[in-house]
Specification:
This protein is of the alpha+beta class. About 25% of the residues lie in helices and about 30% in strands. Strands 3, 7, 8, 9, 10, 11, 12, 21 and 24 form a 9-stranded mixed beta sheet that branches. Strands 16-14-15-17-20 form a 5-stranded mixed beta sheet. A 5-stranded mixed beta sheet has the order 28-27-29-30-31, sandwiched between helices. The radius of gyration is 29 Å and the shape is globular. The site of adenosine-5'-triphosphate has 16 residues, from strand 8, strand 21, strand 24 and helix 11.
């Protein structure tokens, strides 16, 4: 490709509304342009990276035995009504009517459509197992689209769906996808972790997320420093072995805490550590129950663990008027003593005695509070957010480390949730009708490219790894008006094309400074500079973008050297 005939609109200025580096660089390097909030066009340069991502996905899905198909973006409402998600999905589902007033939605995910296909085409266990995938545009009307391709409303996803007769088969399908995902992200050259995840609203009972480690990541993850355990903090389990409640030593005492509202303020006022306080959160559930939740003062509630424990869709902090009604005081003074609602405590609280709690009145706390003696707890459970340093639940002595991550892939074991709701059954060997056991598996293609940029850049621009880079080699022609330079660069360009190397020839009539700045910004991994001075010695200059290493290479050697560097950049080892 010749730069002079290409569309590569680089920007000098940093676009004002781009908060994360990948978004800024994708705009500046002419990869994408915004059409509306969360809706982007891929310009030619960005599309090349996207297509490479898709191709890696395709090859690994095919290798794992999945079969490609393509489903419609417009989904008829009937199917979504059958699964119950037409009502349940909420505002992320973009609904619309056709000219005959029939209801449709833009597919945010395709369990309904694929289940409909399979129930109409597969009727015997002999046709199983099956795993079908597509790479397709999804639409989710995200409440806060941001960070460019990272959280778009329209985005490209690979989604796959597996169908098995039995749970054991579904587990095999799941583990094949787990390995395929590890291969995919390894091939992209990414530093990632696969972590245990909450299976959330989509349902099911087991799931893993694939997280690219990056400071800008929206997710918190923890991993054990001595075993394999890693999990999203939403999910990370904490266990307390043999927790005993110490004997109460102090009398319960009401104390005035004028103007002290936060845990830190109260602790400092009473000359205590926040760990000697117990905080009481009043929460409301999707089933309209109001409960009190107790946590050690310095801990955070994990609302997902609580919702799972209560088997409800969600829990939220109660509104101020509800808090006032159940505690008799405004928000911020709640305590467990004298409450008439159900009190559930984080397991850690079981090991505490003589602590401070809110007094259910403005500027009042209790010191010397003790469970059983002063108030009752109906249940203890793992409810708090895991943090770095927490003990690993799976091994002796391991401790959590914590990271920020970008979720690029997600695999779920769905079970029979959709096949039961939509009556997708097959006959087993005894001729008995059974619901299909399903799994679903997603990867955000655009989000993965963005995540790769988050992980691979410097102050001058992108450094996408070879497998995702739009081109492999950039030839910078220093002075296109110099016949010798032009001829040498053209000849090298033709040689590289003939060697099947993806090459961009910067033949623009621009100053060297501009060409070098653009080269750093667009970050093509290998850069060959052809200039008059070096040519006199029969040399060209080779620069490796991510290490910055430069060397002089004789014109005759450059093509084989580039071929070797490209091959090394694409090489990866498959795990077993
Ligand atoms: P998130 O928690 O980030 O909203 P999700 O759990 O809704 O993700 P899934 O339904 O599991 O995501 O979708 C599979 C994959 O699709 C995700 O792992 C992610 O890579 C990608 N993805 C999801 N939502 C978006 C989005 N709004 N923009 C870009 N990619 C997305
Ligand atoms: Mg989402």
């Amino acid at each position: 490709m010749r730069y002079s005939q290409y569309l590569l609109p680089t920007l000098k200025e940093t676009p004002a509304d781009a908060e994360v580096i990948s978004h800024r660089l994708m705009l500046r390097a002419g990869m994408i342009r915004k059409a509306a909030a969360g809706i982007y066009s891929y310009l030619p340069f960005g599309l090349r990276s996207l297509r490479k991502m898709e191709q890696i996905i395709r090859e690994e899905m095919d290798r794992a035995g999945a079969i490609e198909c393509l489903m419609p973006m417009a989904n008829p409402a009937e199917l979504w009504k059958e699964s119950g998600r037409w009502e349940k999905y909420g505002k992320e589902l973009l609904r619309f009517k056709d000219r005959k007033s029939a209801d449709f939605c833009m597919g945010p995910t395709h369990e309904e459509v694929i289940t409909d296909i399979i129930r109409n085409t597969v009727n015997s266990y002999k046709q199983l197992p099956l795993n079908l995938y597509q790479i397709q545009t999804k639409f989710r009307d995200e409440i806060r689209p941001r960070f460019g391709l990272m959280r778009g409303r329209e985005f490209i996803m690979k989604d796959a769906y597996s169908f098995d007769l039995e749970d054991t088969g579904a587990d095999i399908s799941y583990s094949k996808m787990y390995q395929a995902y590890r291969n995919i992200f390894n091939r992209c050259g990414l530093n990632f972790r696969s972590v245990e995840a909450d299976s959330g609203a989509i349902g099911g009972n087991f799931s893993h997320e694939f997280m690219v480690l990056a400071e800008s990541g929206e997710d918190g993850i923890v991993s054990c420093d001595s075993c394999e355990y890693a999990a999203n903090v939403e999910k990370a389990e904490l266990i307390y072995r043999d927790l005993k409640t110490p004997m109460a030593a102090l009398e319960l005492q009401k104390v005035d805490t004028p103007g002290q509202r936060t845990i830190e303020e109260v602790a400092e006022f009473l000359k205590l550590n926040p760990q000697q306080l117990v905080k009481t959160l009043i929460v409301q559930t999707s089933e309209d129950e109001v409960l009190a939740i107790l946590l050690r003062g310095d801990r955070e509630l994990n609302e997902i663990k609580l919702a799972n424990l209560l088997d409800v869709d969600w829990v939220l902090m109660a509104e101020d008027d509800v808090v006032k009604q159940v505690t008799g005081a405004p928000t911020g003074f709640a305590g467990p003593i004298g409450l008439e609602i159900r009190v559930i405590a984080d397991a850690e609280v079981k090991g505490m005695a003589d602590f401070v709690v809110g007094g259910n009145a403005v500027d009042v706390h209790f010191t010397g509070a003790n469970q059983d003696r002063d108030f009752a707890v109906s249940q203890f459970a793992d409810l708090r957010q895991a943090v770095a340093g927490d003990p690993c639940p799976r091994c002796e002595g391991g401790k959590f480390e914590s990271w920020r991550g970008i979720e690029v892939g997600h695999i779920f074991k769905l079970g029979i949730k959709y096949s039961e709701a939509m009556n997708a059954t097959v006959l087993d060997a005894e001729g008995k009708s059974r619901p299909l056991v399903m799994g679903c598996y997603g990867i955000g293609a655009g989000r993965t490219v963005a995540a790769a940029i988050e992980q691979n850049h410097d102050e001058n621009g992108m450094m996408l790894p070879m497998p995702l880079a739009p081109f492999q080699v950039l030839i910078t022609m220093l002075n296109p008006k110099d016949d010798q330079v032009r001829e040498a660069a053209e000849e090298l360009y033709q040689q590289l094309l003939a060697a099947n190397i993806e090459v961009l020839l910067d033949d623009r009539d621009e100053r060297p400074g501009i060409k070098f700045k653009d080269a750093d910004l667009i970050g093509i991994p290998l850069r060959v500079t052809v200039g008059a001075r070096n040519l006199k010695e029969g040399n060209v200059e080779l620069k490796i973008r991510n290490s910055g290493a430069m060397s002089m290479v004789p014109l005759d050697d450059i093509t084989p050297q580039l071929q070797q560097l490209v091959a090394e950049g694409l090489a990866f080892k498959l795990e077993n």
